[in-house]
Structure formats: structure tokens, C-alpha cells
Amino acid sequence: MTQLKAKTTFRLVADVLALFFVGWLVFGAKPWVGGLASLGDGENPDLDHYMATGLYYGAVFGAVISVIALLAAPLLAKPISDLDDSRPSYPKSMTRFVIGVAAVVIAITAAKNFTRLNQSLWDDEEKAMRMFIVGKVYQSSKTGEWKFKETKWIDTFFNYRLPNNHILFSAAAKLSHSGYDPLDDAPDHLYFSEWRLRLPSFLAGLGTIAALGWLLTILGFQRAAVFAMPLLAMHPWFLRYLVEARGYALVMFFTVLAMVAIVRALQSGKWRWWLAFSALQFCMLYTYPVALHIALMMNICGALVILFSRRLADNRVAMLGKLVSAGLLMSVVLVFLMAPAIPQLQAYIAEDRDLQTIDATLTVDSISMFFTGTTWHVWDQSNPLAHGLKSTADDHAILFALCVIVLIASLIAGAVRLILKRSIAWIIIPVSLLPPAFFIIQSHLQQTAFYPWYIISTITIVPALIALGLDYIARPLGAGRFGSIIALTSLIVGLAAFNYVTKDQRKVICNNPIEPKRDSFILYRDNVVNPFHPAISDILTIGFHQENNTYDPRMFRLNDVDNQDEIFKVIAEADRTGKPLFVDFAQENYARLHFQQIFAVLDDPSQFKLIAELSGLGQQNTRKVMRYVGNKNATKNTQP
Predict the structure, then answer these.
(1) C-alpha–C-alpha distance, residues 589 and 380, integer Å
(2) Ramachandran region of residue 220, left (φ > 0), alpha (ψ -120 to 50) or beta?
(3) CA angle 586, 347, 44 (to 5 degrees)
């Protein structure tokens, strides 16, 4: 694309956007007619109200920015003169080798993890599935009939009553799930498919491996890319989100690709890379708005490179114009589409809820998870799946210390290598490390809700720095007679050190679901799982805290603290019909604070007995299944 065409294209895009937003303001719904401003006192808003208000004001913002961009086009789209592409070149044989390594690592990672696609959904996954992707099973209040309500695309894109809606992921998951029939009448048929929901994350995670190799290659570190890709595939936190039905794997993928795009844009100055950077920022933020810290840091670092690079001295204005243009094109579309989410998010935050606020322990554990995928502390001494690095350090102090020294030295050497290289390679350090640090500091100062996975988006820097450092340290060792063997050995030692530090948590992640909801469900419904099959009513079930109502929508939900005595009605029905009765719940310690009346019944051994306690990978994820034994006639049909 020539510079003239680039300027014409920018003006055309600005024209189209301006016309679209002005058209929306004229012909679209108005806030004072169908929006929040039209509601009377005491009226609750629905999704249409949020959309009418959000899209209108989003269009106002879009129209203003589009017009400004159009007027500023001569400055924003100035031509670039005499700028040679500074991308490093490599022998074709080496490039083919790196591509081959990427293919092997991706194939092995896929083969070892594809069975995890069918693991049980955990709480956040299933909430997103019901509200934004697939739909829910419910009982008609008029007829008592059980029905399936499919989620509409409008909910996928604009329902933000729960921030679990990672919109771009939800849309991709809805597409991948579209070939599944929720109303099949087979007794072993669930109304949703776990693997279809997780497929977008799985593909994005595998793509992140290749994207990391690509990023290091264009930065001039092709040999380090060979080691960074398997290191990423070993990172326990990466493996967890590789198969989680939420948007974190997509954010990792788009984040690395956005770094590729801005690096190539700064190297070449070509408009197509700035457009790619704009599109990838949009994808990153439309999936997960918390990634705004990362987008801001990318733009700040890009501006610093343009302002202080001697190579770009003759093209500073033109390059800054392209950076600003990329941000404008991304922001007007993003703000328009996300504007309906803002009042919904405000309403969610205003609700009284228990939130995890950051403290010293959580800070240490979050940093430990970022670098190793493992908490430092053992988060639950009674849970056999709970693991912390401190336990490994206590059990094998010398070996652990040696491995940590190797890894810390590699991380430092990798960072030094990036800083000393005479290129723009340094930018991946602040882009990857400062946003998580800022997020932790901000959460601490404001005492806002914080969960460690909020900082997962840039964990690819960890294998990148370790690989860069190992390769950097190994280079001087490759000079002697046996240099190649010694250098290769040092690299293998580094890989082995990372493997040792992460292997226990990796084993836990790969062999256990986050929350064993389906595992608890099949303890009492092993023959019939279809909520629409007539035989589903042969067994009675109760859920009252962290209830398993996605896998078992036909259960009696007693989650209202004021109606705990409803348990006696269900018990009476079990006594009357002779049907087996089971209780399925999680987060027992917290539940006991609120459901004392229910636990007074469950703790009576003449009434209920424990069938199984299934450990999860979080304190709130361990589930218990109990069986009613008060009626002896109910035991004859019991499966477990």
C-alpha cells in the first residue's frame, strides 16, 4: 500500500465511521425514549434500556472522535520517507527449524491436554455458559414444564450484568457450540458440551505458543524462541487457562500478537502493521477490558521509541500520527460497543458482595503464580490437591534453591539482554511486567476486588526472559572444543530447573478439574443426566450453596437463607415417594455461617451420611455429596 493510498484509506475509514455514528444518533434509540432516562421511579432496567443509553452515548463519542480524526488526517497520515525495514534476517534453514519446533511443541501440548476439554466446568465457566453463550434449563411458572431458553446473540454481545462475559470469547464459544443440539432426548445427553465451549480457548492457547516464537524471532532472538515455546507449554498457569471456558487464553494470544504488530510497525512503518495493531488492541480489550493497562503501556512504549529513536528522527511526526490513528480507530469502535456495559458494571459493583481484597499473602502468591504458576503458600492444608512452592522448598531445600538461582539468573540475564540490544526489543519488558505490578498496587491502594488471574495476560514474558537468559549465558560457553555440548547442557539444565519448580502444580492442573461439579453430579445421576428425560425425576436432589444447578437444573434450590426450612418439605417428599435424596454443595466453611438450619439436619447421622468429598483447586471448589438415609425405603434405589 503506497503512502497516498494509506492517507486515502484513513480518510475513507474516518468518513465511514463518522457517517455511521451520525446515522445512529439520528435513527437509533434515544436514552430519553427507550433508555435508562425513560424509566420511572422504582422501575428496573432491562437489557434494551442499557443498550439504548450506552449505544447512543457511545455514538456521540464515536462521531466526535471520527470527525476530529478526519480533520486531522493530513497530520495523522503523513507519508513516511526513506525508512528501511529493520527486521532481522535469518537463514531459511534456521527459520524452518524454529517453525518445526513450534509445530512439535503445539502438537505435544494439544495431545497431552485435549482430553481436559471434557473436564467439569467450574462456577465461573458455567455462569458464563448459561448467561452469555448457550442458555439455561428452567421450569415454567405457569405450566410447571421444564424448558430450555437459548441465549440470544444480543445477550452475548451486550449483557454485562456479570463481568464474566468476556465478549469476544463468548461470541467465539457460541459459534463453536452452535452445532450442538441441547434438546436431544438421549438419557446420557447434557444440554451443553464442555469441549465445544472450551475450543476457542484451546486454539488460542496453542496459537500463543507460535505467537511467542514469532515475537522473539522478529526481535532478533530466533534461537531463544526455540526454548521459550516449550517453557510456555510447561507453565502451569498457561495450562490451566488453555482449557478454561473464559477469555484469558484469547487475551494472552491477542496480547502477544499486538506486541508483534507494534514491533513490526515500528520496524517497517507500514500502515498495514498499524492497522493490525489497532485491530489486535480491539480484540484484546473487547475480550477483557482489564487489559487496558497493557494497551496503555504498549502505546506509551511505542511513543517513547518514536520520540527517542535516531532511526526514526526524520519520520517522528508521521510515525506518531500512525500510532495515534491506530488508537483512534480502535477506541471509537470499542467505546461504542462497550458503552452499554458501563452502567451494568456500575450496578454490579454497587451490590453488596464478599470480595477478595489484596493483602501481603495474596500479593506474594500472585507474584509466585505469575512466574511459576504456583502459589508460594499452601492455600488449604486439608486439601490433598493444594500445593505451594514453600512446601517444595521445605522438603528439598538445596535442590529447590539451586533451581531458583538458575531461573532468577536467567530472568535477570534475559532482561539485561533485551535492554542492551540496540533495537526496540526492550519494550516487551515494561509492556509485560508493569501492567501486572500496577494492577496489584492499584488493587491494594483502592482495596478493590482482586483475583490472581487478573494479571495472567502477560505471563508469556516469563518463558521469554528465561529462554533469552539461558541462551545469553550459554553463548560464551560455546566457544571451546566442546562448547556446543556445554552450551546445550546449560540450556537443558535451565529447562530442567523450570520443570522441577513447576512439575507438582502442573500435575495437579492437568489431572484435576478446577471444580468437580460433573464428578459430584454423576455420583447420583450416573445413568440419566438429561434434564428433559422422564427418568431424571426418579432421584431427588438439593443444592443450597454453590449449588450444582448447571449440571443438575432439576435440583431443589434452597439458596435463600430465609427459606432454609424448605429442606423438610423435600425430605417429606422423599419419605412419601421412597425416592433417593442427595445433597450437593461446596465451600462448606462459608456455607455453615449462613445455613445453620440446613446443617443441623445434614450433621445428624441418622438423617444424612457423606457419600464423597471431592477436592477442587480452590477453597470454594471442594464439593460434598450427602445422601438422605432417614427413610430406609429410599436406599433400595440408590446408586452410590
Answers:
(1) 12
(2) left
(3) 105
CA 212 to chain centre: 17
Classify strands 623-628 and 581-586 as parallel, antiparallel or unpaired: antiparallel
The gap from C-alpha 276 to its chain's centroid, in whole angstroms, comes to 22
Which grid coordinates belong to 262? 507494534
Q: Which helix (H) or strand (E) holds 147?
A: strand 146-150
DSSP 615: -
314-344 residue pLDDT tens: 899 999 999 999 999 899 999 999 999 999 9
**Residue 607 to residues 34, 284, 577, 602, Cα–Cα distance (Å):** 54, 52, 16, 7
Place of cell 502438537: 107
State whether residue 340 is helix, strand or coil.
Answer: coil
Quote the DSSP letter at residue 553.
T
pLDDT digits (tens, 9 = 90+) for 112-135: 999 999 999 999 999 999 999 999
Contact of 274 with 3, CB cutoff 8 Å: no
Per-residue burial over 240-264, b if 16 or more Cβ lie within 10 Å, else e, is bbbbbbbbbbbbbbbbbbbbbbbbb
Mean pLDDT over 174-178 rounds to: 96
Cell of 460: 508469556
Cell, residue 206: 496453542
Task: Identify residue 248 by its one-letter amino acid code.
Answer: Y
Residue 449 gets which letter from DSSP? B
Dist CA 264 CA 276 (whole Å): 10
Using alpha carbons, select from 368, 133, 370, 415 the residue that is nearest to residue 252.
Answer: 370
Q: Exposed, middle or buried: residue 479 (CB in 10 Å: 0-12, 13-18, 19+)?
A: exposed
Please state, in angstroms and rounded to a whole number, the distance separating the CA atoms of residues 354 and 345: 16
Under a CB-based contact definition with an 8 Å cutoff, are residues 347 and 161 in contact? yes
Q: How far apart are CA 584 and CA 596, in angstroms?
A: 16
* Residue 557 grid cell: 434450590
Distance, in Å, from the CA atom of 340 to the CA atom of 54, rounded to the nearest integer, reads: 4
What are the grid coordinates assigned to 295, written together? 494497551
* Three-point CA angle 377, 379, 385, nearest 5°: 110
Burial 169-192 (b: 16+ CB within 10 A, else e): bbbbbbebbeebebeeeeeebbbb
Query: 272-311: per-residue pLDDT in tens?
Result: 899 999 999 999 999 999 999 999 999 999 999 999 998 8
| Terminal CA-CA length for the chain | 68
Give me the helices (H) in 447-578, please. Answer: 461-474, 483-511, 517-524, 566-577
Q: In 3D, which of 567, 637, 626, 569 has the Cα closest to residue 596? A: 567
Buried b (16+ CB within 10 A) or exposed e, 132-164: bbbbbbeeeeeeeeeeeeebeeebbbbbbbebb
| Summary count for the chain: helices (H), strands (E) | 26, 7
